[in-house]
Give the backbone structure.
Amino acid sequence: MDKTTGLRIDQTGVMTGLKAQHDYPVPLRRIAYRDPETGKSLVFLTNNFTGPALTIAQLYRGRWEIKLFFKWIKQHLRIKAFYGTSPNAVRTQVWSAIAVYLLVAILKNVCI
């Protein structure tokens, strides 16, 4: 493996547990990656055998960043449900909630 890219391991295997082997008998791909920016070691388990390991690791890393952003939205913006279903309606509601959150944060800092 090329350590300069952060890629450490690209392996293929199957689940060995009795129940796991029965529920998911197909081979899986295990990719270990060390993030060059943070130094964190990440391990991804996927059924994608078509793409290069480095590309898959970067995609999963990016996906994790998106999940963290949505977690932040749920925790801080208190959006329980979306009032519209179109992309524009969701975008408008999220931007409105972010604007209100920032205004409240500014007011907290001014009043302190």
